[in-house]
Amino acid sequence: xxxxxxxxxxxxxxxxxxxxxxxxxxxxxxxxxxxxxxxxxxxxxxxxxxxxxxxxxxxxxxxxxxxxxxxxxxxxxxxxxxxxxxxxxxxxxxxxxxxxxxxxxxxxxxxxxxxxxxxxxxxxxxxxxxxxxxxxxxxxxxxxxxxxxxxxxxxxxxxxxxxxxxxxxxxxxxxxxxxxxxxxxxxxxxxxxxxxxxxxxxxxxxxxxxxxxxxxxxxxxxxxxxxxxxxxxxxxxxxxxxxxxxxxxxxxxxxxxxxxxxxxxxxxxxxxxxxxxxxxxxxxxxxxxxxxxxx
Length: 295
Prior knowledge:
alpha/beta; 8-stranded parallel beta barrel; two-stranded antiparallel sheet; 10 helices; 11 strands
């Protein structure tokens, strides 16, 4: 873990993903040198891991998936995180991964849920860390989305202890994804539930050592990029979330490594507006969001 400005955060580099237009072009043209340059840039910016996702092509072209992994590991020693829900694809990724080139560091399987537990069938033949989604639970054999802090916490605790007790996985190898939501459409208090769940997980002695993480870019979706004063509104929102959660154990960000993070002072207008938003739900939450436009 490295200090990112005033936060002690671990960054999982997110850029090797077709969701970024420039990266998608690299995949389409099979520009392995370009992918390597991107991996080097993330490593030099301090990425602790690099997330790898080549999109739907992973299902139809496993050879290309293996070549991408090999090319990345030729130029960086950063361990990799494989971002695919498919057991078949994860098996190819894990078989292609070189522990030696990563200095013995285990890869991450991203991600498992209570209803997508088949990925753990690979554990034993391969050793890996996991990203565990706390946003969904199994109830009476049906997958359901978690809406409350207690549901999120309960899912995280149940699944993390299952990994520890049934598979012998160290809690340090478990990253609980807290699924940060966009505030623009959050009328159900999902942001508040996530923040409160982080406090519950951080206070549970049985979960001490497990990591909490999330992709922060969702939080400012569909909001203007700049505030009225010209500041980066979306980045300020990310920092507001971190200001509230890092003290309780949120220590890993799936994000762009060169995007710096720092706590916001309490008097910062975005910090105040985000706190105000967390206190509301329904139409009142939407009215609170409008304050971000006027700030």
